[in-house]
Amino acid sequence: MAKEKKDIGSSWEDLPLPEYFPEPYTEERAEEEEEDTEEAAKDSAVKCSPTLLRMLKAAESRWTPRDRDKAEPSKLGRKVSEAEALKTNMQIQLNDQQEEFNKLPTKTGPRPLSHSISQLSADCFSSVGSVSSEDESPPQQKPQKTSKGLTDFCIKNIKQAAFGRKEIDIAQQGMPALMILRKRAGGEKPLAGAKVVGCTHITAQTAVLIETLAALGAQCRWAACNIFSTQNAVAAALAEGGISVFAWKGESEEDFLWCIDRCVAADSWEPNLILDDGGDLTQWIYKKYPSLFKKLKGIVEESVTGIYRLYQLSKAGKLCVPAMNVNDSVTKQKFDNIYCCKESILDGLKRTTDVMFGGKQVVVCGYGEVGKGCCAALKGLGAVIYVTEVDPICALQACMDGIRVITLSEVIRHADMVITCTGNKDVVTREHFDRMRSGCIVCNMGHSNTEIDLASLRTTELKWHRVRPQVDHIVWPDGKRVVLLAEGRLLNLSCSTVPSFVLSVTAATQALALIELYNAPAGRYKQDVYLLPKKMDEYVASLHLPMFDAHVTELTDEQAQYLGISKHGPFKPNYYRY
């Protein structure tokens, strides 16, 4: 039948009707079949297969002499024999499998690539899994050296470098802008002499950025901006490639600051550029190494949290170096913040909770670009969305998108999920937690964990249970439990991964910002916070269009003159809102 189906395609309508149709099953037919069965049973010992014979003999050997005397060559006896034989055969197979399993090596050691996927899953994607015993000791206490003799780094396990290199190679295929920058500017080395100290997420995508900066002539030292987001295999690959990396997944707060300090306080090496994500590195240098801070040529910051800190320094007159605000550039706001979060919010929630979104009542705190992306994704899967917002413009946008705008206190009792994306502090407080229903999921899509008041939850009356990596159940005395993800830190990079392509947009913007600050003539940038020139945003966008085989229309001279702009851009004024 399968062959006939294959011959005619996927349709069954043209199959020929069978020549024989079975008759209805009646009592007379049942008696006839019983007689035929009894006659056929006489020859069953001859007609059965050799395999069945061996199974029957194995079952017979397990009988006692008393059982043999009682056994009769009847139909019932044969059925019992076959059942015993099948049971025995299954037992033999299980025993063989157990013996084969016991032969496997038990010592922890280097594993082939095909066996290392589960480890990468535990390290990079926050899946349920165990870490080998060789990785249990703190990285600071382990002697580490690359194959080329580099010792100025601190990671989890340098033996994972080969696997991390493959992850970086895969990410490169989805990051066209950085590859084009390497090709076009690699010979000129626009960052020759630059010493970049960075504090970002250490993933395969940021590794492509770091190696691009090195290819453009920069010396780099790197730490992680999030204690959960580091992909250990990627960190190992960077170290093997000659980059001084100080990061591993699951750092403590003390480890986090220790890694930042090791990046900055290197012997005979002083940074002149900062690439920061969250402002922790900038703040550390500003407070602990003020003389070094004053020598910097510039700071590039990509998060809303870090930008707040820079504007505060500028307002107080304490920002003594120019800084580039990448977070508010068009290529970061309209692509990374929207599209990256739109896809990765679902990935992070699914990997950690396996939750079904249809019909769930979800509260999204903040309707900026990140909030818009999260709401679009969740709404598309059938969730009922509520938004909390302080800005009337963003609130009106939510209303026009068909989303109910409400305060968190009004809806908290009915919420199945609360997602913060404000960049603020104390958005979800203990009062809100006490009023949540049991099973409510709480997570954060902003950079910092300040949005959720965790300090109020660390009391003796509340019990914390770690049920999965980055998944905690907080249990109240009455048995109510709230699910907290990633301890309130950035969900998508702590519990999942993000698309390489959309990060290519942000990474290219960061690279161009560093090149601009490093090569700018004296006096172009003063001690303040600047946005990237509009022309750079357009250039970054143009580098990604070939991936879609997109063809941009070119203005005629008359059209350009009519609009009062250059036919090559920039096409929008700086005040334009995309």
How would you describe what is shown here?
The protein is an alpha/beta fold and 578 residues long. Among the domains are: 224 residues, 3-Layer(aba) Sandwich (Rossmann fold), CATH 3.40.50.1480; 158 residues, 3-Layer(aba) Sandwich (Rossmann fold). Helix content is 45%, strand content 11%. Strands 9-8-7-10-11-14-13-12 form an 8-stranded mixed β-sheet, with helices on one face. The two termini are 59 Å apart. The N terminus is likely disordered.
CATH superfamily grouping of the domain at 139-328 and 499-532? Adenosylhomocysteinase-like
Q: What is the residue-mean pLDDT, rounded to a whole number?
A: 83
Distance between the termini: 59 Å
Low-confidence stretches: 1-13, 15-22, 40-47, 64-77, 99-134
Basic shape:
globular
CATH class of the domain at 139-328 and 499-532: Alpha Beta
Major beta-sheet overview: 8 strands, mixed
Q: Helix tally?
A: 24
Q: Widest sheet: strand order?
A: 9-8-7-10-11-14-13-12
Name given to the CATH architecture of the domain at 139-328 and 499-532: 3-Layer(aba) Sandwich
Task: Give a count of the beta strands, DSSP E runs of length 2 or more.
Answer: 15
> Which secondary-structure class do the elements indicate?
alpha/beta
Percent in helix: 40-55%
CATH topology call of the domain at 139-328 and 499-532: Rossmann fold
Share of β-strand residues: 5-15%
Radius of gyration: 32 Å
Keywords: NAD, One-carbon metabolism
Pfam family, one: AdoHcyase
Family: Belongs to the adenosylhomocysteinase family.
Biased composition (Polar residues): 138-149
